Amino acid sequence: MMTVYIVSQPMAAAVRSKALQRLLGTLLGASAAVVIVPRLDNTPVLLCLALALWVGGCLSISLLDRSPRSYIMMLAGYTATIIGFSSVNQPGEIFTLAVARTEEITLGITCATVVHSLWFPRPVGDALRIRIQNWLGEADRWALDILHSGDPAAMSRDRERLAAAATEIHIMATHLPFDTSNLREKTAIVRALHDRILMLIPILASLSDRLSALRNERAHLDDQSRHAISQVTHWINSRSTTIGVHGLSEELESMSAATQRSDWYALNQLGLFSRLQDLVRTRDEGESLLAQLDSPLTMMPSSPNEIIGKTSSRPMHSDPGLALLSGFAAVIAILISCTVWIELGWAEGGASAMGASIVCCLFAAMDDPAPAIRTFGISLVAAVPLAALYLFAIFSAIDSFPLLVLTLAPTMLTLGMIIPNPKMALPALITLLNFCNSMAIVERFNTDFANFLNLNLSMFFGMFSAIFVTRFLRSMSADASARRLLTQTWKSLAHLAQGKNDEEPAAFASRMVDRLGLLAPRLSVSKDGDLSGMDALNELRAGMDLVALQRLRTQLPFSERMIVEELLQAVGKHYAARSAGPLPHDEQLLMIMDHALNTLATSLPAKSVESLTALLGLRRNLFPKAKFVRCVAGSAA
Fold this sequence. Notes:
By secondary structure, the protein is mainly α. The chain is 74% helix and 0% strand. It has 24 helices and no strands. It is elongated. The termini are far apart.
């Protein structure tokens, strides 16, 4: 009964996906219990330590993967404690108990999967296609707002929403292999589309920055920049795909080649044209790939194999240190519960260790799991009297399966209808799960109220242990979480600048955009003055510029390459220092950066400006208000 509610999802593919994950996690956890318990049953301390370490290890591994697949390892952890601690008094029956639990889980999985597949199934492919279409439409609105100086607050909300949507699309795409729509065979196209989505965010952010720099220099943009903006705006509004793209790209390229690099305005104008080209190219590829989802005969801007063949599953943010700390907290909470259980000779005390392991695993991904664990406890308070009413009043008056269904229906259907409400989903689901668990329906009626009360009190103690340990070891505020994410971002940028992290642009953007989606809600509620006004997009733009410089530096002439390499090392030291403490005032880095800009602006050929625009973007991100020393007058060769 519990499994049916746990695996039930709005989309049928997600149900099948979670059903398989729950089966694999159960098998792995049951196998661990079968291996551990018989060997250590005569040494309770070692048995408790082994099971606690198993839970902590599985939880740490699961937290390193923020996709739905992480459920496998998390479930494997606490399944071993459910089976293991239930069988310590009868270790010879451990295999039978493990098989019985696996059978129960398999039955629940099968029922949920069949029902969701046959009655009103919602394919994930249809929802994913609509989500991507909406995303591209929102990206267009953001682009038009940028090009025409829209409301800064609205643009800030747009980019936060787009970053969160990119992560949502990534997670939805993981369910595609379990889908029944025709999108299942086009997973590679979806991944290619996701890459374009990832790249559009830093492109649009950089475009906004270039326009801000130009408008800070002059009250009115020059005619050529206004013409370029007008052309791109018309192209976006016309919803063109391949029509006019090549002509527009060539016109922007010719504008870029003809741009004088004599001053700061001209360099930012060059950056504007370059980012407009990137926007047109990436958006066009995204629209063409979207059309390819519906019609494989649609013409694409380049070979489908060339675009799709370069895609792979993109990485998401992970925090190994926090994962280990969460695993350690679970180990301590379980050991505290086991100590009380053993020292008091509490017959039903094993349930406290099970409860501690379950709640520590379920809420470990939160900044502060304690409030959610407390909600779990409150829901248990509501569920236990309800379960007692059924067990000791209602069930004694019934003697058949139809009557069982009729008596359970009002409670289970009512709670089931509340679950889709986002505000009530967690307490309703937890109440329902605790209700099913507390009843522990068996073949024959059992009136042992003392055993019922003891088991549930034991569960409460496990939750108290989990809250105590979590508060002491694991909980962190939104400010602390934001600082941790920013520190990891700066360390990544330091490694990237120093050549210790060789990632392609889309992979780096995937991790950074995922962090942006995590940072945005934390920064919005932050009360730390140092974090107020912090724009995580600056780090994303800087990272993409560093990726470009690392990729292009080997193509530069020797003297220019040496200058860029010196600059990259200096940038790496800057971000390493920033991750270790307050923002450094690095005047030496500013001098190195301006020297590099002057050199590349006067020496690079007109058609080799990508390195120059990346360097310009990096300078704008690190020193947005610093005055730039003018370049030598004249255009590039």
